[in-house]
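Sequence in, structure out.
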Amino acid sequence: MSNAVNILLAKEKDYIGAKLGMWIFLFTEIFLFGGMFLIYAVYRFEYSFDFYNSSEHLNLIMGTLNTALLLTSSLTMALSILAIRKGNKKLSTIFLFITIILGILFMVNKYIEWTAEISNGIYPNSPELLQKSKGEILFYGLYFVMTGLHGLHVLAGIIILSVMLVFVRKDKIRESDFTWLENSGLYWHLVDVIWIFLFPLFYLAR
């Protein structure tokens, strides 16, 4: 009896430790993007007209589509965790796979959007961009840096969720031990929340 209690207590400590570690990591990510949002706010206040003008050249439809993709992926991620907590491995796997596909579609759309901008000569330090006003240069610089960094986080999330998919299929993640999947879900939700802020800052600043 005492051994069983000790095992349960050890699992509880591991769970709390894993959750605490994940939240600390998420806070560092929030500080990283929070600093960038602050820089954006300062420059937008100083060059409001240039930011509004530059925003009109971004593809609002693509930005809206990517927002829908990530919001849907947050839902499927939550459903995957809910399913594994109820012991439904198959359903958890399906929802996790859908989440990964939605993340890949987001990256494909972002690649298409970036390619269109680059083909028009708009990219950091490009001759055409350097001919524009200082405010427009700052807007596009922030756009490529912030959405690019966010894209790297999405890519990392896709890789992490792919590993979690393998773990679920191999029963390394199951009803009694789903901490890894839950922490991966927290990371994915953070990625989605960051995009929810990026979308209006760049696409709706018009």
